## 1
Amino acid sequence: MSELQTIHPTLRVIPREEHNVSRRDISPNALRVLYRLREAGFGAYLVGGAVRDLLVGGHPKDFDVATDATPEQVKQLFRNCRLIGRRFRLAHVVFGREIIEVATFRSNADDGSGERETHEGGRVLRDNVFGTIEDDAVRRDFTVNALYYAIEDFSVRDYVGGFEDVQHRLMRLIGDPEKRYREDPVRMLRAVRLAAKLDFEIEAATAEPIPRMAPLLGEAAPARLFEECLKLFLTGHAVASFERLEYHGLLDVLFPESAIALRANRSGALRRMLIAGLRGTDTRVANDEPVSPAFLFALLLWPAYCRALAQLQHGGMHAAEAERRAADRVTVHQLNTIALPRRFSLPMQEIWLLQSRFSQRQRKRVFRLLAHPRFRAAYDFLNLRMAASNEHADDVAFWREAQHQPGDVLAAQLDTQPEGESAGAPRRRRRRRRGSAASGE
Ligand code: ATP
Ligand code: MG
């Protein structure tokens, strides 16, 4: 059965005076595109995340346009337009750094029916199935993502009950949830991510299959899952994302080894540390400070790393060797699900491997660590560990001082300390660490 037979799109028009989408909040470039399409006689609508975000009073980061003009017709209207995509051709209208994406209405080519439906005015172009505005609405994922703001009368057009769902703050899949998740398992993550971002609930029938179907996410493209992770955790709602992923059973699929380690950690210190780190990330985003995927993944995979390290050491491996093996093992295993690029996984591992060096006080090593490009990130990480476990306070105090002291003062201070590490460190540990510093970097 095709999607169109199970869903009956019925149009509800919400006139301008009954909604809060205002042209004042729409990017002037998006308005330019909408008006130009309209003047040329085409249907022109703002659609998707932008309409949803405007309805809840948010500030959309990008503005997508839907139209019945074909990509070629769009290209003829705008000099600053290029066509992209092989499977579905899209028009990008470029205004300096802002790109307005213009998509021709299309129907769901992946509706599982095995049939390609063509509609009046629709045609098959490569794999590009054009459709009506109704087709375009029902192929979208959630009802709140399928609202159309019409430039001709400033009304919002709703074919699937999305307007009401926005009022009730509900994420509801269009059509049969199981079928929609099977079509594209990443929709499970999108449900959680958008609910976290908007502070919406996931409607019961949309939430119900998630724990059951979560394993399907393992088949999603690892590169796409990496991109989703960045949106889940680096856009200002990391704590909410994490808690909802955990609640809906998705953490076990995204970060299986960390999920196991978190459950096994009786004291709860690993979880506290993780949440504190994610809260810090949210604060940085709120303050427009930079956030790094390397630090994020160091946090998310720290429980897995600690567990792997403990296992290796339990088997008798020396600390330095075990640390490197644990870091590699966790990284390699994680790559099965999420394609973490090397430019992020290498600094992530450095953040972990630097942790054991904070207890070393030999003059040469102190200066080497202070000069390490990952010192600051690793020190911030140490702070999180201290806050969650009430350990490492001496180390944090030492390095907090050390990084602000003039070199000669610090050197003099270190020279007056007994040779080697901080007082009381056992000799055996020191020797192992020495091996670590020699072979680790
Ligand atoms: P945000 O940009 O805040 O992450 P968004 O809803 O705009 O959220 P995009 O990935 O930009 O997300 O997608 C734009 C629109 O395309 C969505 O609003 C939705 O209508 C549609 N869409 C995106 N991904 C899917 C999907 N996996 N299945 C069906 N429709 C989708
Ligand atoms: Mg978007």
## 2
Amino acid sequence: MPEIHVVQRDNRHLYESYFDPYFRLRHDIYVKQRKWMALDRPDGREIDQFDTEDAVYLFCLDGGQLIGAMRAVPTLSPTLMSDIFPYLSIRGPIHRPDVYELSRIFVVPERRGEHAGPQVEMLLLTAIMEYGISIGLTGFSIVLESWWLPRFARCGWRAHPLGLPQMIDGMSVLAVLVDCDETTWKSLCGQIGLTNPTLTWQGLTGVNRQILPDISLHHSPAVQPAR
Ligand code: COA
């Protein structure tokens, strides 16, 4: 089973060797494959203004290889929604201590659409919920393409639109606020067969974490499993 590591300011030094491959992978995936040319950089690394000391990364590692990742940025700091896409949220960008903005979720191409074990993408969606409830978040804001909405609905992520979708560079994009709560996390764990929390908090003993509910008895999915 791949491991999901929480990487942030306090333990980043333990993962320093992963950062260069991580930013190169982002460049390969977002610039070369997805053709998001605004993110192009001559050094072949996709790094933006939100990759600051405040950013939290979930690194999905399998046999020491980075096979997927996701980024979370506190909404009290600058975010994609506050600085680039404020018009996507009718009531204006979210700035709340209990909401982080998610972005840059990816799985390396060779590990997408797997059915042998939990899909890497589902593991990441479950892990970020665990992260959120561990540190007392109540929601995640996301600027996303609208094709995510049925995917979220299928796995039980409740996404509330903050505005209407807009066409941006040929993509239908909108802003949402997703509930972060124990019920969703337990349901996700049930869907992918997790009976224990999945996150690795290496070097993060100083982080104040809430006790998680027992999931060892929650095997039956509360919602339709993702297909
Ligand atoms: N546009 C529309 N639908 C997409 C899509 C895209 N760019 N990428 C994925 N999907 C949807 C499709 O329904 C796809 O089914 P299909 O293969 O029948 O078209 C389904 O997601 C499954 O995607 P797949 O890539 O096979 O596997 P996955 O579920 O394991 O991984 C992602 C999903 C998004 C994590 C993976 O596709 C990825 O890493 N993509 C590149 C990074 C990215 O675009 N991230 C989102 C923006 S930050």
